Every structure is written in structure tokens, then in C-alpha cells.
Amino acid sequence: MTTKTAPPTPAKPPGENRLRRTFSALGAAQAYIGLVLILAVGIATKGDIFLNETNLTNAVGAFASRGILAVGVTLVILTGGIDLSVGSLLGIASMTAAMMLSKHSLEPWQIVPICMVVGAFFGFLNGAGTAWLRIQSFVMTLAMLSVVRGLDRQVSDNVSVGTQIAGPDGKLTPQAEAFQLFGTPGHNLFDRIYYPVLAFIVVCVVFHLILTKTRFGRHVYAVGGNPTAARLSGVNVTAITIAVFTLSGMLAGFAGPIDAAYSASADPQAGQSYELDAIAAAVIGGASLAGGKGTIAGTFVGALILTLLDNVLGLNAVSDNWQLVIKGLIVVVAVVLQRPDLFKFFRGGSRS
Amino acid sequence: MTVLTMRAIGKSFPGVRALDGVSLTVAEGEVVALLGENGAGKSTLMNILAGVFKDYEGEIEIGGQVAHIHSPKDARRHGVAMIHQELNLVPELSITDNIFLGRERTILDRKSTEARSAELLRGLGLDLSPRRLIKQCKIAERQLIEVAKALSQNVRVLVMDEPTSALADAEVRRLYAVIRDLTARGVAVIYISHRLEELEEIADRVVVLRDGTYVGERSEVDRDELIQMMVGRPLGEMFPRADGGGAGKELLKVEGLSVPGEPGTGRTPLREVSLSVRAGEIVGVAGLMGAGRSELLETIFGVHRPAAGSMSLGGRTYRPRSPKGAIRRGVALVAEDRKAQSLVLGNTIAFNAGLPSLRRFLRFGMVDARSEQAAVERQVNELRVKASGTRFTVGNLSGGNQQKVVLAKWLLTSPSLILMDEPTRGIDVGAKAEIHALMSSLAAGGKGVLVASSELPELLAMCDRILVLCEGRITAEFSREEHPTQEAILEAAMARQKVTTL
Q1: Residue A233 and residue B301: Cβ atoms within 8 Å?
Q2: Which residues numbered 8-27 in A keep a CB inside 8 Å of some CB on B?
Q3: Strand-strand pairing, B205-210 and B188-192
Q4: What is the rounded CA–CA span in Å between residue B42 and residue B21?
Q5: Taking each helix axis from N to C terminus, what angle separates A53-78 and A29-50, rounded to the nearest 10 degrees?
Q6: Are A214 and B366 an interchain contact pair (Cβ–Cβ within 8 Å)?
Q7: With a CB-CB cutoff of 8 Å, which residues 77-106 of chain A face chain B?
Q8: Could you tell me the fold of the domain covering A37-337?
Q9: Which of B333, B355, B377 is opposite residue A222, by nearest beta carbon?
Q10: C-alpha angle A132/B353/A299, rounded to 5°?
């Protein structure tokens, strides 16, 4: 190696400093450890079945809609709020998608924006209730969870709507054919890329950039860290609050068609309890419900952990019931690992 | 008779030796003041005494017997009570519930505890119902309720950490009367304060710490000598502003500004306030607690909407609808409570300093991290913030350095008018002098400075003009040439009668 490895930089961010910065931007280290552990267990127990493209894309694909919800929930959590309604919003968006397809034969490229608008509309209401009516976001979104689920069941008459629509010739309509690309297993974009995986990754990258590189992103962290200081620094706290809830709703709307395509139908119960997986992914990834702390990269890793955990346990024939138990324990362990002070407490060296 | 002896106390935190071989003795009925810059180890020493820290080196003796104090409960058992700077009362509970918090019987006996707390309150000259909620009490009342809480547990040593930092003069008097009453009953008081003027009046002895070590003690308060002991070097001039210099043209004009108060929050209404600040001028705002000083600055900064009156800035109408609007017009507010109002404590220096001026660093809609970093670094170095880098977490800085980060953040917005609310509260003498020097140089650079402070000597030394507020009205204005005295200002600040009979 010659000495000319690094170009001279104006300030003095030495390599170590930059490394640390990159690393902290990637999220909590323990999340990666967890990911590696799960991969190791997967490979050790079911090497061939686990570690191949089909299994992994299917696993991530099955979780992708929840992963996308987790990105939106992370935005809300960063401002110090919570969004419990994303599961219901995903449900109504998937219902919207299926109805647009079956009743109006809309093209997929028309369906996705419509679903996003539907989600964003309810998300906006969440934000307005939180910011303008000063309702605690937990309460506001809990109410929305109930309201939207009710609407979903009402418009669908409690019957699920299939997306495999047959035309008069008995074959799938062209629209339904195209809709399958959104997530029906076995249908890939350009015969290669499984759309849910791609969508999840793109959403993560876009929102990672928004949070780390834009003024809006900084303001999100400031609102979560100290709303008073944010306001007195010229941040429009109301607008930021409404914006994060609207974006979270919009992402839930975006995830709706994926979920409908994956199940080949929109069930009135679709998305139920997805909000819990989304929140768990954010928390495992290092987000703090107190606000101001967390990253999209962390949430991405958190979502992967939950995904692969489901997959590995499933392959090893662990029952659904035990999967739930293990998932819950992992959330607690992840949170404890993020609190080094807890270890100090156990060792007896407390520090105020 | 000696009631407390702390011998060779030492304490280390990761990377810092906070205390090293410090000894302290206090006699019954004595008031000992602990003096030192931020980070000198005063609070660490007192936290050890109050059982906040589990492990430390050295030995504590109370009443002639070795006391093993390793938890707040131990401290309480030995008759040590501490009133922290940030008061430890639960706002949603009543006075009685707070006084007996943690010592309740399994089944609450409301009647007798309320009678007991009423008696304690009366003893302190507080005319409050024991059922009143803490959130309905004023700061000064809360302070005395903390004292009542300490008294309710047969206190022998009472530690007070900066008890007067949030109190107005009249309230300080009352606190002193209480302290004298306590010492007459044999209670030993350890008093931490940054206000040298106070020590003269209340302390029997002043013990000075510096960098975690004992420097010396004096029973006579000699201001210059004590400051020298604290900083370890003679401090040339505490208030460096010699003369007003030439003030430029009018920058801010406020006419007949009225703001309604807000019931419940205790916000003082402003009544027909008129004032002006010229470029290159430092204007002071004096007044007691609740006189409306903060409200005035906040209204100019767009936090509250005025009901009447008009403002102009740089000759143009100025009607800020939010702090955002004020910042765009080149106004900055160094708020009163830096932790609650100015800083995102969990985030870095760079994050905090860049927050209001991000607009400056935008390139294609993205924040250009490199130019932002460079600007923040330059500003932070200029103000001599002591930290390992701009990625340092603000919450771990000392008070003086935190305040410098707040100043850096506002200077980065290149303001023309800087509003400062208690800019030197709770920070050490060295940083204080630096902030005063900065104010002078800002004025010399043609900026307008409007500063509210409860420390009259500071205002008298720094300001070209001083406005006095009382109950939301301006009751007097003094120019530097008039050489106003503290007494004259206080008189105007308490011109309450005149106001209410009008």
C-alpha cells in the first residue's frame, strides 16, 4: 500500500471518524448481530432449503408489505408519536386495489396511486387529529384503526374480493394478469425481480435519503428530540407532524396492492395486527418510542430479522404459537441490548 | 458541634476524575457555601452525600458516627436531605402527597398527613392549602415545599443546589429567612450558588472547589479573591463593556404591544409595551419573576400573538406569525431554559447548531453536510466550545458549553437582532465573562441586542439602556448616562401598587 490511499479532505474527518459515522447511520449494531445469528441458525439447521434465492425472496416477499409499513411507522416514531392504524390502512388499500381491479378493470399503474391517495388521506386525518386537536397519537391512531377496519368491512360486505379476475374467455383479464406482478409468488418483473422485494428496498433507500440528507429529515429528528426547541428554531412542528402521519398512511396505501396480489385476494381482515410487526421492526432496529432516535437502515435490518426468523422457525417446523412467543422475546432482548446502562445497573456501577 | 464530616472523598466517572480527596466539615447551625465553576465537583460531592452514587472513595461521618451512605434511603435515614436544582416534585400530585412521597403508610391516612403538612407549610410562612396540586404552585413556592419535605423527615443536614437561580429578589429574602430559622434550630445547611453577592449575606463560610479538588475556604467574602480561587487565575474584568459606543439607526420599534395572558399556564399578560432597539445597542430588560420579561422577548420572536400594537424591524412592518417568520427576518432568541427550549439534548453539536440555518446549506434540496459541518466547526471554535468534536452529544456538555452551542446556533443564522433571555443563568464565571464579551462584540458589529436578566449587576454593566417591567408594563427606563442604581431599578420593578390602582 502506498501512502496515497485517501485524498486530502478540507476538514479533518479521519477514516475512523467517518467509519463511525457510517456505522451509526446504518443503525444499531446489535441488530446486525441478531441478523447474523439468525442466518447462522438457518444455514446450520436447513442449509440448502434456507439459503437459496427462491426461499429468501419468498420470505422477504411475504414480509415486504409489513416492512414498508415499518418504514412509515419509523417516521412517526422518530417524531415521538406512534401509528397503530397502518394495518387497517393497508387493509382498506388492498380492498381498494381489488375492487378497482374487479369492478372497474383499472390498470395496475392506475391502482397504485389511487391506493396511495386513500392511505395518505387517512394518514392526514391522523396527523390533523394529533397536531391540531392535540389528541395523543396513540389514541388518535387507535381510533383510526377501528374506524378504517369498520369501513373496510362495510364496503366489502365482509366478503373477500379476489384479484384473479377471469374474462369472458375464461382466462385472466390483462389487468389481472398484470396485477399479479405486484406480488403473486412466481410472477416476476422482467422474469427476474420479485416486485415486493424491490418495492421494499426502494422505499427504504428513498426514505433513508430523505431522513439523512434533507431539511425535512433533520426537522423530523428535531421534533422528536425536543419539540419546543424545534419550534423555537423555526421548525414548523405542526406541519412536520401532519407530514409524517400522511407519509405513513401513504406507504400503507402503497403496501396494500402488494398484500392483495400476494394473497390473490383482498380480505376484509387483511393487515390485522401488521402494525405490531411494523413497530417491532422499528424497535428492533434501534428506534426509541420517546422520539428522536432511530434510522431507516435499522428498521430495514429489524424487518429482515423478523422475516428470516419466521422463515427459519417455519422451516424447522416450530409451531405458529411458539413463533409468536419467540418474536416477543426478541423484541425485549433487542431493546435491552440497546441500553448499555442497564448492564451497568446489573453490575452495580450506577451513574446519574 | 460538628455534625457532618466528609473525609478524603474521591469519585471517578469513565474518563474523568470528578473528585479527588475532598474533605468537608459542617457544624450544627452553620451555613457553608460550596463555590466552584461548572464541573468543579460541587454537585458530585453533594450527590455522594445524598446517596445518589453507590460507590465512591472516602468516609462520611454524621453526628460523630461513620455513616454508610450508598442510596437516597441511607441518606434520609442519616438526616441528609437535598434540594436539587431541578426540583423533584410530581406536578400532578398535591403538596401533601409530595411531602410524604415514598413514606406513606400502606393505607393512607389523609387527615393526619394533611394536618402535618399544613403545619409544616405554616412554619415556612406559606399560606397554601395542603391539597393544592404542585403544578398550581409557583417556582418559589415549590422551593419552599421542598424545604418542607426535608423538614418533615427530621433533617440534620440540608443541601440546597442553586436554590435562588429561578427566584426573584423578594422570594430570595423569604428563602433566607427560612434558612436562618433552620440554622437557629441547629440544622446545618450546605448551599451551592453561583451568585457571589448572595454568599456574603447567607454563608458563614465559603469552601471553594476547582477541578474536583479542594482549593481553600474563607469566612469573609472577598469577591475578587473568591473568583480568583475558583478560576485559578485573576479574571481581568467581569463585565468587559466599557462604554456604549455609537449606536446606529433604529432596528426594532415596538409600539403599544399588548398580549393577553393565559390562565392556567401563569403566563403574564403584556400591557401596552413600547420600546426601541438601535443597531449596535444593548438594551436590558429588568423585572421580577412574572414581570413578563420572557413573554416580551417571546412575543417579539413570534411565539405569542399580540392582541394590539405594532412592531417594525429595520424600518419595515414586522408581524411574525411564528418563530420561523422571526428567524427569516433576522431575529434570534436565546431562550431562558436552554435544556427545555433550546437544545435537542440527545443529538450532536452539529445537529443543534445547524438546525435553524439549514436553509443556508441546501443544495438541490439536500443538506450539503460538508459545508454545514465546516460552518458549524468554525462557529463552535470561535466561541471556544470545549468538546472533542462537533459529533459530541450536547447533553454531555457542561452548562456553559451548552449555552455556547445555543449561541453558535443563532450566530449561524446571521441575525441582526438578538434576543437573550437570562443568557448567563447557571453557568460558571469563566463562560459568563466570555458571553459578556460576545455580547459586546455583537453590539460593536452593529447588531441589536435585547437582553432580559434577573442579575442587576449584569444589566447595569452591559446595557446602554435598561427597561424595567412590572406586571407586564414598562415602569421605568434608565440610560447608561443616568448611572442608575440597583435600588432605583428594584423600586421600579416593584411599582406594583401604582399599576393596580390605575
Answers
A1: no
A2: 10-11, 13, 17, 21
A3: unpaired
A4: 13
A5: 160
A6: yes
A7: none
A8: ABC transporter involved in vitamin B12 uptake, BtuC (1.10.3470)
A9: B355
A10: 60
Q: How far apart are CA B403 and CA B420, in angstroms?
A: 11
Q: Is the entire prediction scored with pTM above 0.80?
A: no
Range 199-238 of A in CB contact (< 8 A) with B: 213-215, 218, 221-222, 225-226, 228-236
Q: How far is A235 from chain B (nearest CA, A)?
A: 6
Residue of B321, B324, B342 best to disrupt the A interface, most CBs of A under 10 A: B324
CA distance B403 to chain A (A): 13
- Say if CB B403 and CB B435 are below 8 A apart: yes
Q: How many Å from the N-terminal Cα to the C-terminal Cα in chain A?
A: 47
Nearest CB neighbour to B347, from listed A10, A213, A221: A221
Q: Minimal Cα–Cα distance from B118 to chain A, Å?
A: 33
Q: Shortest CA distance to A242 belongs to which of A92, A113, A93, A83? A: A83
For chain A, give every domain's residue range.
37-337
| Least Cα separation, residue B33 to chain A (angstroms) | 23
Q: Provide the strand spans (E) within B141-187.
A: 157-161
Query: Contact A154/A88 with Cβ under 8 angstroms?
Result: no
CB distance from A340 to chain B under 8 Å? no
Residue of A232, A341, A344 for testing the chain B interface, max B β-carbons within 10 Å: A232
How far apart, in whole angstroms, are the C-alpha atoms of residue B95 and residue B30? 28
Q: What's the rounded Cα separation, in Å, for the pair A258 and A264?
A: 10
Q: What ipTM was estimated for this complex?
A: 0.78
Q: Report the DSSP beta bridge partners of residue B158.
A: B81, B189
Dihedrals phi, psi of B408, to nearest 5 degrees: -60, -40
Q: Which grid cell is B459?
A: 444589566
Q: Residue B327 to residues B296, B318, B409, B414, B415: CA-CA distances in angstroms?
A: 16, 12, 12, 10, 8
To probe the interface with A, which of B16, B48, B347 has the most A CB atoms within 10 Å?
Answer: B347
Distance CA A300, CA A307 (A): 10
A114's grid cell: 389511487
Tell me, yes or no, if A351 comes closer than 8 A to chain B by beta carbon: yes
Q: Which residues of A touch B331 (CB under 8 A)?
A: none
Render each residue's pLDDT in chain A as its tens digit; 352 residues: 333 333 333 333 344 455 545 544 444 566 677 788 888 887 778 777 777 778 888 888 889 999 999 999 999 999 999 999 999 999 999 999 999 998 888 988 899 999 999 999 999 999 999 999 999 999 999 999 999 999 999 999 999 998 888 888 888 888 888 888 888 877 777 777 888 999 999 999 999 999 999 999 999 999 999 999 999 999 999 999 999 999 999 999 999 999 999 998 999 999 999 999 999 999 999 898 988 989 999 999 999 999 888 888 888 888 889 988 988 998 888 887 776 666 555 554 444 3
**DSSP codes of every residue in B330-393:** TEEEE-S-IIIII--TTSBHHHHHHGGGGGGGEETTEE-HHHHHHHHHHHHHHTT--SS-TTSB
Of A129, A92, A3, A74, the residue nearest A248 (C-alpha): A74
Contact A70, A281 (CB under 8 A): yes
Residues 6+ apart with CB under 8 A from A263: A94, A270
CA-to-CA separations, A278 to A69, A82, A287, A304, B389, in angstroms, rounded: 6, 11, 12, 11, 35
Grid coordinates given for A60: 422477504
A287 interfacial to chain B (CB closer than 8 Å): no
* Residues of chain B neighbouring A345 (CB-CB closer than 8 A): none
Buried b (16+ CB within 10 A) or exposed e, B346-384: bbbbbbbbbbbbbeebeeeeebeeeebbebbbebbeebe
- Across the interface, do A234 and B54 touch by the CB < 8 Å criterion? no
Residue of A nearest to B366 (CA): A214
